[in-house]
Design brief:
By secondary structure, the protein is an alpha/beta fold. The chain has one domain: Metal-dependent hydrolases (TIM Barrel, Alpha-Beta Barrel), CATH 3.20.20.140. The protein is globular. The structure holds (4S)-2,6-dioxohexahydropyrimidine-4-carboxylic acid (DOR) and zinc ion. (4S)-2,6-dioxohexahydropyrimidine-4-carboxylic acid binds next to loops.
């Protein structure tokens, strides 16, 4: 039995920290476990110009020196291909595409991928990764990721040199698509899609703190996701999609989609890898394959995680985390 493991400090390749001043609390929570975080641009208003992206980065850097922000911009239909050059100069790692209405803050999202072909061509040229919330909101909830895959297949044919990340994959079909595509296509996997199934969300009383998009799916989907995560295939790496909403926005009749997991996602992932006897693949999944895919060097700092129980707080700054008040088996060794 392994009781302690030292790995390169992880990266979170998919994180929501919202706007300042609240963002400071959330980035502080993330900095305990993560060396770098790819921050998402679906703030209100969105990060949709190089100037806004640079200003957001500076605010993050000023509020926390321990974690390095990696930057994204939101792809809107108003975006021009010449803007892509400026985003590249400003240091953007990804452009994030949300289909219109698919999730939190996506009413300004995209309706027609074809209209964006000049943008995709410019991103391919500038070597900016296209990050996609891959769901089709026009079909039934549990079919949304599956229904988006033909669009992705077309996109990968039309832009073979464009790097694409299918974010927070949640289904058997999502995993199969990643496995069948080229090395330019990869996926992030969250702790919550690895840990839970739809039964935890609403098999008993509905748990709004497990409500997110894409929705947490079946036990069969979860099994395939787990197998992908522990497989050692570099196309699958960690992105928490930690997405804080204050308690009153979750515990109400129009619950916001998003799960706050940043303070405890790593212990959850460690537990799953340990149960699979795959602790040896943990470092690659949390701290290696994502950096490799994005052409970044792996971090030099390390963390040690030990088998020691702790109780997840009921709230962090007014946000109820996933697994609030529950006991976890793995802790950060300080
Ligand atoms: O559940 C989600 N919440 N999924 C997303 O894609 C966005 C996120 C948010 O911003 O709250
Ligand atoms: Zn997200």
């Amino acid at each position: 039995m392994i009781n302690e493991i030292t790995i390169i400090k992880p990266d979170d390749f998919h994180l929501h920290i919202r706007d300042f001043p609240d963002a400071e609390k959330y980035i502080n929570d993330s900095s305990i476990w993560f060396s770098r975080a790819l921050v998402m641009p679906n703030t209100l208003p969105p990060i949709d110009t190089p100037e806004k992206m640079i200003a957001y980065k500076k605010q993050i850097e000023a509020s926390n020196e321990k974690i390095e922000p990696l930057m994204s911009f939101k792809i809107l239909s108003s975006l021009k291909s010449v803007d892509i050059i400026n985003f590249k100069k400003a240091g953007a790692l990804i452009g994030k595409l949300y289909p219109k209405g698919v999730t939190t803050n996506s009413s300004d999202g995209i309706e027609n991928l074809r209209e964006l072909y000049p943008i995709f061509a410019a991103m391919e040229n500038q070597k900016i990764t296209l990050s996609i919330h891959g769901e089709d909101p026009s079909v039934s909830l549990f079919q949304r990721e599956k229904a988006f895959i033909p669009k992705l297949e077309q996109l990968t044919k039309d832009f073979p040199n464009l790097k694409i990340v299918l974010e927070h994959i949640s289904t058997i079909e999502g995993v199969a698509f990643i496995l069948s595509s080229s090395d330019n296509v990869a996926a992030t996997i969250t702790a919550h899609h690895l840990l839970f199934s739809v039964d935890d969300l609403m098999g008993g009383p509905f748990n709004p703190h497990l409500f997110c998009k894409p929705i947490i799916q079946t036990v069969e989907d979860r099994g395939v996701l787990r197998a992908a995560a522990v497989s050692g295939n570099p196309k699958f790496f960690f992105g928490s999609d930690s997405a804080p909403h204050i308690k009153s926005k979750k515990e109400c009749s129009t619950s916001a989609a998003g799960i706050y997991s940043a303070p405890l996602a790593i212990p959850v992932v460690v537990e799953i890898f340990d149960n699979y006897g795959k602790i040896n693949q943990l470092e690659n999944f949390l701290s290696g394959f994502g950096a490799d895919f994005y052409g970044l060097s792996r971090n030099s700092d390390k963390i040690t995680i030990k088998r020691k129980k702790w109780k997840v707080p009921s709230e962090y700054h007014g946000v109820v985390p996933m697994l609030a008040n529950r006991e976890l088996n793995w802790s950060l060794k300080k």
